[in-house]
């Protein structure tokens, strides 16, 4: 009996189960080991349950927020549909002769507006696609079909508008012409790509003098001014160009400014220098207001020479000044050719130049007389054939 009581005491908690690991003492150690393991397992399960609960709460609030946003948008569409009875499926389809109840607000038309053209930004003052100095040569054959393939964006009549921006000006390029088809092909080949890179809205007009009488360049330019405006009254810039001159740098922008512009200031035939300070020949540009201010160009210069100086005098007499590009940019190549028949030097040009102040008010755009014989819109230009009359009989010299 005493031995049994001693074995029971060995299992008391206070005793820490000392003694040998056999018999009842070993059983007590295993029980404590299993109890500690169960306690740790229960704690781990409790932590997992708590984590699962937190995740469930977070997901619940996220889904709730999404449903709340959806119903908010849905309820916001309801009043808008009520303001547009024609857009609702239950409006008046079942009773076409009834009137929908008024909401007290102004009635909104149910028709959908048609598509509107996109608003393009202004074209940049310095176009980004310019090349700079160009290689110009006139030896390769230049059929019009090739030039047309090279310029698919140019419309019938030689019209072009940039597709990606809105130009500040509408430019009419006027070319006085007779029997220069070979030169015209080269001009179109080089100038169309240049003008397109300059982001210009433009049209090209070839003013063809009918017949074989003496050539009158300035009068043809007056005709071109008037005929271009008949086709498009929005032209506000006019570039007057000889057909045998091609710019060697596309930074020479064919635009009009505050003052009349002289573009061809350095031709190869003059050693790429300005021949004299008052030279205004070859290629020039005036705005519509500037052109009208000087009464256009003179009509009485029949034959070669003198009209450019008369135009320079008109500009100076009206208080304007000539604007020119940098001489490194205003370089031009001229297509070599013999002097045209019926374009001999004008023997009266020097006398007329001295009298510009007396003649400019009566001789100009207001007094030009001509007859249009044909207007032909070609793929790359508009050809206008005109009868400008004949020169007066000059008294014999000497």
Map the helices and strands:
Elements: H1 2-9, H2 24-83, H3 144-150, E1 159-160, E2 170-177, H4 181-197, E3 201-209, H5 217-231, E4 237-241, E5 245-247, E6 261-262, E7 266-267, E8 283-287, H6 288-293, H7 307-317, E9 331-334, H8 349-354, H9 356-359, E10 371-377, E11 382-387
Parallel strand pairs: 2-3, 2-4, 3-11, 7-9
Antiparallel strand pairs: 1-3, 4-8, 5-9, 6-8, 10-11
Function: Responsible for the synthesis of complex-type N-linked oligosaccharides in many glycoproteins as well as the carbohydrate moieties of glycolipids.
Keywords: Disulfide bond, Glycoprotein, Glycosyltransferase, Golgi apparatus, Manganese, Membrane, Metal-binding, Signal-anchor, Transferase, Transmembrane, Transmembrane helix
Protein name: Beta-1,4-galactosyltransferase
In a few lines, what is going on in this structure?
The protein is an alpha/beta fold. The protein has a domain at 156-387: Spore Coat Polysaccharide Biosynthesis Protein SpsA, Chain A. The protein has 9 helices and 11 strands.
Question: How would you characterize the overall build of this protein?
Answer:
- It is a single chain.
- The protein is of the alpha/beta class and about 400 residues long.
- The chain has a domain at about 155-385: Spore Coat Polysaccharide Biosynthesis Protein SpsA, Chain A, CATH 3.90.550.
- About 35% of the residues lie in helices and about 15% in strands.
- The strands form two sheets. Strands 1, 2, 3, 4, 6, 8, 10 and 11 form an eight-stranded mixed sheet that branches. The protein has a three-stranded mixed sheet with strand order 5-9-7.
- Strand 10 (about 370-375) and strand 11 (about 380-385) form a beta hairpin.
- Helix 3 (about 145-150) runs parallel beside helix 4.
- The protein is elongated.
- Mean pLDDT is about 80; it is low at about 1-20 and about 65-110.
